[in-house]
Prior knowledge:
Blueprint: H1 14-22, E1 39-43, E2 47-53, E3 62-67, E4 70-84, E5 89-103, E6 114-118, E7 121-127
Antiparallel strand pairs: 1-2, 2-7, 3-4, 4-5, 6-7
Amino acid sequence: MSIVRWKPMLAPNFRSLVNDFFGDKEWFGTDGDTLMPAVNIRELKDMYLIELAAPGLNKNDFNIEVENGVLMISAEHKDEKEEKDDKYTRKEFSYNKFMRSFTLPENVKADAIKALYEDGLLKVEVPLLETKVMKPKKVEIK
Length: 142
């Protein structure tokens, strides 16, 4: 067991000054919770259902792969808007990207995974292998 020690900061760093001024948003590309979509995982009788909240994306923005027992869900979205007027031109660019990975148990059918994206919600169905329930058997002792 380790002891947690607190070291007071003698001088504030640049990031804390910016956060104090602008709020708690991450401005330097770190993995803040605003960039990572929320995920719900439900275990049903015959499958796992993974729901990922990703509004504003298209189904073509997603990439879903299974490799070595790991399910990887990633998305990349680029958006560019341009407005022109007589006196000005305004261009806006936005770029969003994320990747989530999930280690799959051994009892899934990786070849039968299905995905559906509608209303800003990506639903990934991971079916389970059928398991035979063995009936109890009495073993005689000889």
